[in-house]
Design brief:
7-stranded mixed sheet, 646 residues, alpha/beta, elongated, Nitrilase/N-carbamoyl-D-aminoacid amidohydrolase
Length: 646
């Protein structure tokens, strides 16, 4: 439960049709097993105490009475479990029969949630046996113990709230309810539910599994919720239908876990309800709970740390599957190029100037510029690629810059800035042997001045090369590489820059161009502002500011979800297990927060550039942050983690 995580389970038991005693035994065993594995919300299929395929046996009093008795047996078994359990059961009330999901916790039957939409088409004929449930909850009274009657909520509009975890608000719907145009889960989520459970009995037909998975993932995305879908499986009658299980758990559009079809399985997933609640706070399209007429039913869970079994990707900006990664790369390259194309058309510029260093960022900027010129129908000869060697330039990066320009069909121009920088040093009284920040930044600003003035000469635009990771850390010289007339890389994090260049290399038809791009990828990231050692790069950015894969991980969870330092630290340990130790992760986490807050003034005056993904740092869009905000409370929390890193 710590940090907003809650372990959940969707279970498909093997049942016997019309044998509630056997089915309850199976349900209790699986319920106990799931609870022992840490599951706090446990969901079983629709009508699983009796079986969904009982047909007209649902009209038999013997079956209904047995189902009620076995539900009580399940309720009693829950007394020793720290979990909220939903199980499907038929329930007779006031002369009608309902298809319900019984909510059970701590030895109590908390509520019965009836199905709203009863299918009566194709293979389904539920209206023959069941009545649709009412939205407004009333009560049923149970006289089943020596202490007297119990009153139990009965209705669809019920929220199950957890005192120990305020963001955990659970609501239920049943099978067909999620397949209709206006599912109950929509109003449940608008009323505040962060987790939707679905007790289901969806039979198998060709291709139905694909649609079912899209439906559940889409509903969890639309409602910004966790969705636990437990489906009926083997054991149901195969007289006319086959049920294949296919239970799944989704979170905000992502299937976290799913069962194989035609297997009765238990699937687990760790839902992050704090993340869901934070995402909703960021959006303004959810209704306030106070405006909705819902009944609330409280339940309790022990306060303890959830064992995390969910996968935490170390590079959240980069899709794991190659086909997804290729599609993402092609999409981002198009966004970048289309943004620049529009800017060229609007300004009437037919020439651009790109500072090319032989490094990753300027390589990507030149590739994007070439693509934009192709889209605009402009000749690549009107791209002026300027290399500006100085004290830190190595032969390797110089050769790659020149060869890349030639292979892309741009015009190469070399401006050696050593003399200009030395004159500047004399003007301001800077010792050239003193390799401090002035020594470095004077070169960066001289390069920007050269690019700006050449752009004026040619009537062109200076294309910015800096990426989003550098902007987040402030790893850019103010009014140096920080500035341009249009920054094509400003919406792309460093970890993704590498994959974009790799994608271009893999898909280009020119073998020599591919070789150049691969060598650029193999070159250490460096601003090359300090003299080389034995001809090699002496100034490696990641040695100074930290690994970009760590900083991009921090950036994603800080900006996308607003997670606390402690939660990010915990996730990073899982994501980078075996790669970085706790001390290293914490060291660079503190560096990230320190630099992120102190360097906002650079982001406050960024040049225009396209947003590429869900995270961006533009002050005109995603990050409206004061330049003078204090990092004190974030750093204090990070400092307090020191003992945990020992």
């Amino acid at each position: 439960m710590k940090h907003g995580f809650i372990k959940t389970a969707a279970i498909t038991p093997k049942i016997r049709v019309a044998d509630p005693e056997y089915n309850a035994r199976e349900i209790i065993g699986l319920m106990q097993e799931a609870a022992e594995n840490g599951a706090k919300i446990i969901v079983f299929p629709e009508l699983c105490i009796t079986g969904y395929t009982c047909g007209d046996l649902f009209l038999q009093e013997t079956l209904l009475e047995s189902a009620r008795e076995q539900l009580y047996r399940i309720v009693d078994a829950s007394k020793e479990l720290d979990a909220l359990v939903f199980v499907g059961v038929p329930w007779a009330k006031e002369g009608k029969l309902y298809n319900t999901a019984a909510a059970v916790s701590g030895g109590k039957l908390l509520a019965l949630v009836p199905k709203t939409h009863l299918p009566n088409y194709g293979e389904f004929y539920e209206l023959r046996h069941f009545a649709p449930g009412n939205r407004e909850a009333d009560f049923v009274w149970l006289n089943r113990n020596a202490e007297g009657e119990e009153d139990v909520l009965f209705g669809t509009d019920i929220l199950f709230t957890c005192e120990e975890m305020p963001d955990l608000i659970v609501a239920a719907e049943i099978c067909e309810d999620v397949w209709v145009p206006d599912p109950p889960s929509v109003r449940h989520a608008c009323a505040g539910a962060t987790v939707i459970v679905n007790c289901s009995a969806s039979d198998e037909t060709t291709g139905k599994d694909v649609y079912r998975e899209q439906l559940i993932s889409g509903q969890s995305a639309r409602l910004v919720c966790g969705y636990i879908y437990a489906n009926a499986g083997e054991g149901e009658s195969t007289q006319d239908l086959v049920f294949g299980g296919h239970s799944m758990i989704a979170e905000n559009g992502r299937i976290l876990s799913k069962a194989a079809r035609f297997k009765n399985e238990v699937v687990y997933a760790d839902l992050d309800v704090a993340r869901l609640a934070g995402e909703r706070r960021r959006m303004n399209t959810f209704f306030a709970r106070s405006s909705m007429a819902y009944s609330e039913c409280g339940f309790h869970l022990k306060k303890e740390e959830t064992r995390l079994d969910r996968t935490v990707e170390p590079q959240p900006f980069v899709p794991g599957k190659k086909e997804d990664r290729d599609r993402r790369c092609e999409e981002i390259l198009s966004i970048q190029a289309m943004g620049l194309k529009k800017r060229l058309e609007h300004t009437g510029c037919k020439n651009v100037v790109v500072g090319i260093s032989g490094g990753l960022d300027s390589t990507l900027a030149l590739l994007v510029t070439a693509k934009a010129f192709d889209l605009a129908g402009l000749p690549r000869e009107q791209i002026l690629s300027v290399t500006m060697p100085c004290f830190g330039t190595t032969d390797r990066t110089y050769r790659n810059a020149c060869e890349l320009t030639r292979k892309l069909g741009a015009v190469l121009r070399e401006v050696d800035i050593r003399e200009a920088v030395n004159v500047h040093f004399r003007d301001i009284g800077q010792d050239p042997q003193k390799h401090d920040v002035t020594f470095e930044n004077a070169q960066a600003r001289e390069r920007t001045q050269v690019l700006m003035d050449i752009a004026n000469q040619t009537g062109g635009l200076v294309i910015g090369t800096g990426d989003m990771s550098e902007l987040a850390l402030g790893w850019a010289t103010y009014n140096g590489d920080h500035m341009s007339m249009y920054g094509v890389n400003g919406g792309v994090p460093k970890t993704l820059v590498r994959h974009l260049v790799r994608h271009y290399a893999d898909t280009c038809q020119d073998k020599k161009l591919m070789e150049v791009l691969l060598d650029v990828l193999d070159t250490p990231v460096s601003p090359e502002l300090l003299p080389p050692k034995d001809g090699d790069i002496s100034q490696k950015t990641e040695d100074l500011v930290g690994p970009y894969e760590l900083h991009d991980f921090y950036l994603y969870y800080v900006l996308r979800f607003g997670f606390t330092p402690e939660k990010i630290y915990r996730l990073a340990q899982k994501a980078f297990s075996g790669i970085y130790n706790k001390e290293t992760i914490l060291k660079w986490l503190k560096v990230f927060y320190r630099r992120f807050f102190t360097q906002q003034f650079k982001r406050s005056c960024l040049p225009d550039g396209p947003k590429a993904g869900s995270v961006a740092v533009s002050p005109r869009g995603d990050l409206r942050m004061p330049s003078d905000a204090s990092a004190h409370i974030w750093l204090r929390e990070a400092e307090a983690l020191e003992d945990k890193a020992q």
